[in-house]
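call fold(seq) -> tokens
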Amino acid sequence: MINGANKPILVYHDKQGVCKTNLSFSSDELKLFLSQLNASLPFDDVSLSDASRANVTLPPCSVNPTITIRKFKKESFSVIDLVKSKTLSEELAAFLWTAFEGLSVFPLNVLIAGSTAAGKTTTLNALTAFIPPSERVISIEDVPELNLKDKENWIPLFISKKASAQDLLKNALRMRPDRLIVGDIRSGEAETLFTAMNTGHRGTSGTMHANNDRDALTRLEHEPINVPRDLLPLVDLIVIQNRFVDRRKGMIRRVLQVSEVSRIEDVVSLNQLF
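ret:
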């Protein structure tokens, strides 16, 4: 975390939390670094050469230029790693294996929701290991976070100023996908995604921000996402994951809730499975 020129650079440590370093940027060094990042807006997300994610804010949006860099593990977490760290129980991991793989017949549509930095994308990435290798996977993200390098037929698409998530999703439907993954559902692309589910695409998955299963449905139905209520039951499962501070372990991440979505007459109902 770089909060301006001549201010200590802060780093986040897994166990110690936010720590102050003895490093800082001078004004000239910070200007040079910003020019290398090539941020084109007063607030912008850019990717670094090692796939780290950098968020930049510039005046007048902030008093000082700021840069927040989120680094990712070189090797993605596996489901076994998530079980060992107690993010998932063994029983839940087995259930989600069945849900994603679908016995090669009927994979479920799954949304993983939670707070910021709850590990939603990490969990989604780990669960993609259960997608059969013969299937074509197309992912759509703002910045590259998913890593499906074990999939030979994986096509990653990235949102840009010339192509919105909705544009890319419409195009992806013409690419004969077996699986569609949307990295962060925020607005109009959700309706296109649900329409794809409605036309028979199985095994669709994505992430979004929500505190619980009911919040997730409320967010999907209202501005700015605006998914019609009749389409909401096309999501089979909502997985809720959040992060907490533990005095002994520091920051921990846990899957708190898994609910199935269904329709009873005109009411969209939720049944908590885990």
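The CA atoms of residues 79 and 224 lie 33 Å apart.
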